[in-house]
Amino acid sequence: MATASTTQRLFQQFEPELLKKVQQVGLVRKFKAEEYLMQTGQQIRSAVLVLDGVIKVFREDDEGNEVFMYNLHPGEACAISMTCAARQLSSQIMAKALVDTEVLAIPVELMDEWALKYRSWYQFVLETYRSRFEELLDTLDHIAFRNLDERLLWYLKQHQKSLKSNFIKTSFTDIALELNSSREVISRLMKKLAEKGHVKLHKNEVEILNLKM
Amino acid sequence: MATASTTQRLFQQFEPELLKKVQQVGLVRKFKAEEYLMQTGQQIRSAVLVLDGVIKVFREDDEGNEVFMYNLHPGEACAISMTCAARQLSSQIMAKALVDTEVLAIPVELMDEWALKYRSWYQFVLETYRSRFEELLDTLDHIAFRNLDERLLWYLKQHQKSLKSNFIKTSFTDIALELNSSREVISRLMKKLAEKGHVKLHKNEVEILNLKM
DNA sequence: ACCCTCCTGTGATGCTTATCACGCCCAAAG
DNA sequence: CTTTGGGCGTGATAAGCATCACAGGAGGGT
Prior knowledge:
The structure is a homodimer of 213-residue chains. Chain A has 213 residues and is of the alpha+beta class. Chain A has 2 domains: 2-144, Jelly Rolls; 146-208, Arc Repressor Mutant, subunit A. Chain A has 8 helices and 10 strands. Chain A has helices at 2-10, 16-25, 79-87, 108-117, 119-145, 148-163, 172-178, 183-195; strands spanning 27-31, 36-38, 46-52, 55-60, 66-72, 94-97, 101-107, 167-168, 199-202, 205-208. In chain A, strands 2-6-4-5 form a 4-stranded antiparallel β-sheet. In chain A, strands 1-7-3 form a 3-stranded antiparallel β-sheet. A 3-stranded antiparallel β-sheet of chain A has the order 8-10-9. The longest helix of chain A has 27 residues, at 119-145. Chain A is elongated. At the A-B interface, helix 3, helix 4 and helix 5 of A face helix 3, helix 4 and helix 5 of B. The structure holds a DNA duplex (30 and 30 nucleotides).
């Protein structure tokens, strides 16, 4: 199957035996762009490894405000899914496919078993945590210290990197939602960025020209 | 020794054999109030379990701004120390004792060994991550969505809980630093809180009367 | 063609918070 | 006693952003 070579490429650090098991028991699940992989309060029964695509992980509060946490890419895993799965807790987060996405779901029971058996799995879990933690701290820094114009730039850079594209097909309204701002403000800031030659604005789409400042 | 009963009480979930090892190899280190346990860029060579006291974990950027992350209490462990130790990385965070504090340092080599050997240790590491992650998310929520007055209340509640005391001996200047605000603003907000009967202001000290709102 | 909806641009206004500029009190040091 | 420095209170001012109000354009459906 196609998954075998993909997993092998993405998870080279796994011991051969572990890799084989991952391929055997991992359940491939596909999601369309914009589809939700996980929603607040949902029970988690498996750890999620990303095979292809991009997953946006974020939080939403009672009033519909959202906090962006980080994006997940192929070869990465969702830290939340790991702990919550391990402890049978419901998640407090949302995960949404930004493009068509493919993940590998590992049943929770095996997580524990593997951790005790395969050093590379344990290391992988730890590394997953470490990276997500770092990313979350980075997000925290930006929200705490940066003004909206810098955060907007950061948003654009993130999407450019995650989607490997200079075209972002998102409405200002959605960008505003993600940055906890308002459409009008984003509109004005985008205009400034366009004037400075960093972006070019199209209908329903932002083209990134040059974000070096 | 005194540590034996303390560790037993705090880490009941550990298997007896693991508990014994923890007591054998754990190095007890004491810190005075206000002392730093860890500073940005410092190499980490052991995981830290808190035995007594309170540790404030936070970040500091180039310009001296700080972001509060969470407080650690007896029975808890520093997630950062765990991953960084495991991967021999330097920390990007600061940790400071809020009161006289006692910790148990576990050499990094044993972390890996125990993870493969003791289910309860692996569970403990996972749980540590999960809790710190949750706390970090909580902090993120507050910074992203709450106004300064609510964040000040949150700050007071945290200290009340962590220090188990209704008296906070901290200058407004320091509180402002922690909340990324300015002394004047804290002064005005405190006055409001005092007028509403939530706190009573003393020289160099805030007395918490009632934070229920 | 027409309507309807979604996306965008722009001015006006006000809230929250940062910053500046003082002056006051108190305590420790000279 | 006087000086000095740290903590505090308070007004004035301004930056950053949210919100409201309104208008125009583009596209899809009927």
